[in-house]
Amino acid sequence: MVLKLHRLGRTSFRAVKNKRDYLEHRKNFSWLYLSRLAAKKEFAFMRALGEHGFPVPEAIEVNRHCVLMERMAAYPLVRVRNLGNVQDVYRQAVGLVARLAQHGLIHCDFNEFNLMITEREELIVIDFPQMVSTSHPNAKMFYERDVRCIVDWFHKQYRYDDVDDAESHFSFETVVGRSAAGLLDKELRASGYDKECEDTLEDWRKASHGDSGSSEEEEELSNDEEELPELERAALDVTKLEVG
Which of the residues in the chain have pLDDT under 50? Predict the structure, then answer.
C-alpha cells in the first residue's frame, strides 16, 4: 500500500499571498484545510474512476490530508527511456484523456509524471486533486493541454510523431459529444462530493495557478522527481524496462 500526504508547498504560498482577492470570502482558508479537501477529492475521484474500469490504484481510505491507496507494480513513465511498442502506449495515453472526457472529467495534469507503466506496457493514471468537469469554463483549454503534453512527451522522449493527428481526431468537441457512458462529474456530486469543497479548491487553483492552471510549484515537484531513493533506483535497474 501507499500513503499519500497532501501538502501545499512554499511556492504556492508566495503565489497566493499576492492574489488574496480570490480568497477574501473564504473564512477557513488554511493550508491544512485545503490539504484535507484535496485528499477528500482525490479519494472520491480515484474510487469512482476505479469503479468505472479506469486503470487507477484502488482507493482504500482517506483521513484528514492522507490518502491510503494500492501500491501498483508499475514505474513512472518519466523514468522509462525505451518502450517495446511506442505507438500502442501513445494511443493508450491519448485514449485515456479522451475516455475521461467522455465520462465528464478532465485530468488537468495528464503528463509523464502522472502516468505509470507496467512491464506489460499498460498505463496507470495517478494524481487526481486537480480534476475538473467538462462543464468547467476552461475545460476545453485543460483538455487540449493534456493532449498536447502527451504529444510533446512522446516526440521528445521516444521520437514518436503523431501520425493519426490525435489533437484533431480527439478534439474536445468530438470527444465530449460521444459522452454516452454516464457523466462521472454528476455522479460524484450526487454521491456526496459537495460543491462547496470543489468551489474552495477552485479558488485555491485560481489563486496559486492562475486561469491557465500552471504554477511555479510544478517546477518544484518536477525537481523532486530527481531525488529518487537508492533502493527505488536499484529496483528500477533490474526491471525489463530500460529506465533512467
Answer: 9-11, 19-20, 22, 215-244
The reply to whether 127 belongs to the active site is no
Q: How far apart are CA 237 and CA 242, in angstroms?
A: 7
Give the full edge-to-edge strand order of the sheet including 75-76: 75-76, 115-117, 123-125
d(CA 137, CA 142): 10
For 88, list phi and psi in degrees, rounded to 5: -65, -45
Catalytic residue from among 109, 162, 185, 203 = 109
Q: Which three three-digit cell numbers place residue 116?
A: 505509470
pTM, whole model, 2 decimals?
0.76
Q: Which residues make beta-bridge pairs with 243?
A: 80
Q: Which residue ranges form the domains of the chain, and what is each CATH number?
A: 2-210 (1.10.510.10)
Cell of 47: 474510487
